[in-house]
Fold:
Amino acid sequence: MESWVEIGKTGKTHGLKGELKLAVDEFFLEDLLSAKALFVDIRGRKTPYFIEAVRGGAAIIIKLEEVNTLEEATLLANKAVFLRESDVAELPDPEDEGLEYGFLAGFALYSPTGEKLGAIESIEAYPHQEIAVVRTKDEREVLIPLTEQFIVEIREKEKTVVMDLPEGLMEM
Structure:
């Protein structure tokens, strides 16, 4: 049985020659560009369409084989779009999905003076912001809001983040 990965959704038609606007999760853009076919959810069934052309910058326009008129494209508008799991290079980590700062899990946390404050164990989504779950040097768990006003620098190569935290926040 085939496994599917939803990568986005078709939008409105574009022009009169069967093209469609396509909203694709950025994580899967390279997979789409290298795919020969995509699958459109039509009444609960994944219907294959060979990709004739993909173009665009901010807005992706796709042309599918055998979809040559506005009327044919209209039937495919506003539908979920899938790739076979075997056509996807990497699946996103479900725990990081939708998190702006999810990649910080595993990073070391430092103060602006260079003092190591702890290790970021995970990132959790809370209403209106993301929270870093930090394990301190003395093994306490502290929740730190990830806001631009606290983040001084993120060093991805060194897997460190420097934060200027309000006094007393690490003692909570």
Observations:
- The chain has a mean pLDDT of 87.
- Residues 7 and 29 are 8 Å apart (CA to CA).
- The domain at 102-171 is CATH 2.30.30.240 (SH3 type barrels.).
